[in-house]
Amino acid sequence: MNKKKIIIIATVVVLIAVVGAVIVFMMGGDNGKKSRNSKKFQYELGEQYSNVRMEGNDGGARKTIIKYSPTIVYTNEKLQKKFIAASTELTTEYKKYFMSKTEKQLTKLERVSEDLTDITKEVMKDEKDEIINVLFGQYILQ
Hints:
By secondary structure, the protein is an alpha+beta fold. It has two domains: 2-34; 39-141, 2-Layer Sandwich (Tetrahydropterin Synthase, Chain A). It is 49% helix and 20% strand. It has helices spanning 2-28, 31-37, 80-99, 109-123; strands at residues 41-44, 48-51, 65-74, 131-141. Strands 1, 2, 3 and 4 form a four-stranded antiparallel beta sheet that branches. Helix 3 (80-99) packs across helix 4. It is elongated, with a radius of gyration of 25 Å.
């Protein structure tokens, strides 16, 4: 009877150890990288305006204008100076993007955010892995 108790207790202890190891591996296996990249920084490009592409060529139609305030989210604090240096190029590329899209295409905010994130990564080629997202403080189509 003592042998059975010892075997059952040993089995339970081993099972708990295995489950604990699996949980630790799945939840915290990359602690060094997570703690280093967990801090996020933001660079605000300020309020911007752009025309939006017209769908038809009827000359009497009212033109659509977009007002937006993009904020770039990134992980390396040292990129602040590079964003300041590239702000004119980023603003120009964003305006080109908005002028090439119709009002209907710009209603999908998640897609616009993904596209502007890709544009930002193209402009900031060497730091593309540090750029997380482009968010909007304001986003108004009129």
